[in-house]
Write a structure and sequence with these properties.
Helix content of chain B: 40-55%
CATH superfamily of chain B: ACP-like
Strand content of chain B: under 5%
Distance between the termini of chain A: 46 Å
Shape of chain B: globular
Low-confidence stretches of chain A: none
Radius of gyration of chain A: 23 Å
CATH topology of chain B: Non-ribosomal Peptide Synthetase Peptidyl Carrier Protein, Chain A
Structural class of chain B: mainly alpha
Distance between the termini of chain B: 7 Å
Oligomer: heterodimer
Largest sheet of chain B: none
Number of strands of chain A: 0
Number of helices of chain A: 16
Largest interface: A-B, 24 and 18 residues
Strand content of chain A: under 5%
Number of strands of chain B: 0
Mean pLDDT of chain A: 88
CATH class of chain B: Mainly Alpha
Chain lengths: ~400, ~80
Amino acid sequence: MNFFSLDFILFSLTVVFLVNTLHIKYREIIFLVFNLLFLYTFIGNFPTFIALFVFLAWGYFFCYVSISRWQVKYNTFSFVLSVGGLLTSFLILKKYQILQFALSPERFPLNHNIQIIGLSYILFRIIHLLIECQEREGIKFNVLSYLNYLLGFHMLLAGPIQRYSDFHRQYTSNPSLSEKENWTALNRILNGFIKKFILAEQVHLLIPYFIANHGEHPFLYSWLYAYSYFIFTYLDFSGYCDIVIGVGYFIGVIPPENFNYPIMARNIIDFWNRWHISFYEWIRDYLFTPILKFTLTRTRGEYLLIMACLSYMITLVLSGLWHGTEFRCIAWGVYHGVGIIICKLYELFIRKYLGQKRFKEYLANRWIRFSSTFVTFQFVSVSFLIFSLDIDRSVLFLRSMIGM
Amino acid sequence: MKEKLEVIFRRVLEDEELVIRDDMTASDVESWDSLAHINLILQIENEFGVKFNITEIQGLRCVGDIINLLHRKGVS
């Protein structure tokens, strides 16, 4: 089901109507039926459905045992088993390239388009929920809320990654929108449609032109390609988020905000606070912080800066791998990792050099702000170029960008 | 406990005149960034002999949150 289709609009309207007219006790069932229906339009074949079910059941089992009356507390073994099992089934479902040599298509006939549904987002939510169940007191869930949390139709395709407590609080209370909120929601949906289906489409038309005619003006077209790819991705993805947030208002489960004017970011760390926020917060909480804490504990708190750089790099390379296993994804991760490390070191240096008071003045300076935003925009655009092109073309374009 | 915390905050955030308040958050202190935050947590763990898990760390937004969590962990 395409987002820009009569099907999707009618589908959403039906859910909105039922959720807002029927008694709250039917909500869980309505959500489940419609979430599964939506999922079904993407996965037509039975083996895939079973594979996905096994994946979800694996997660449910480990969540359940930790909050059941047995209150099983994880040790390293069971944690590795639960997350390892999830990752393995995830990799099989996604048919990652590293697994292709082991899973020849003849032996493993999973003909699905499961890449389309946001399987990685489901994985992120399950891992989050597993840790919540282990560590948070009094967390409440059952099969219905588990499935509705993971498969919510408006967040199925590309997130955002909502936190379970946020989901559950809204899910168990009556949706009641003020008139103002109704308009906000409609406005978001309309905005989203304009961004995703009009503006992003227009920018997208430019992209092949810059590739095909690169030879004519190598310098100019390389940069324009990078800018247009960045702008396109922003409009497309944030437009999608606007739509799902708007729909979320009407069905009473509002997804978290995912973008905060990333084009205005003044450095690359600031960029990651504004771009794909729910993803960034997830990797910060479940990758960066644990990795840094672990390495620092091992070194008895010394070498903070070295360990931080190491953790930034590991985190960013892993998030590159999350996007795909091609070399360009790893290169993208390394590029961002290097950017963040340089940015952090520069910030520490300039703060030490200028002192607290002058550092504040430095940050408030309009020209500093303008130029750093400009540089960040260039840096991020280049990262989109690296991400979107194969390595040979990438090198060609990067060389053109510096006039080589 | 609060005095001990203040010593840690001053050392980690490199500000000898820092006076901590319960509602003080990272946005109130320029040098309290994500690295300093983890450093603070680590130093507090060592000082009070406690361990914070991933979920607890996520809930630490202000000084008051840290004090409450330490209380819950039996630090007086």
